[in-house]
Amino acid sequence: MSFLARFRRKKEDPEVVRRRVLLQRGRIGEANVIEITKDGDGNTMLAYSYTVGGVDYQAFQRLDDEQLRRAHDYFPDARVDLRYDPKRPVNSFVV
Q: Alpha-carbon torsion 88, 41, 74, 64, what sign?
């Protein structure tokens, strides 16, 4: 390890940073769950859709550990809380 490497900050996971920013500054909305599936790596994926300003969006999200404990809340056609960036509504995640 080089001398300067000792003083570099550890880089945070970009997904963790994105979610934290949306929780602090994002707007609250509602999304409709389309489906919940497993991907090839065994991660539980949530497909959802939402509308902001008359524009329909569809997104996919990997559920974290806390959300997996509440997996029964994410049945198809369920309405769930959403956080999104008002300047870039495509940047969103289900809470």
A: negative
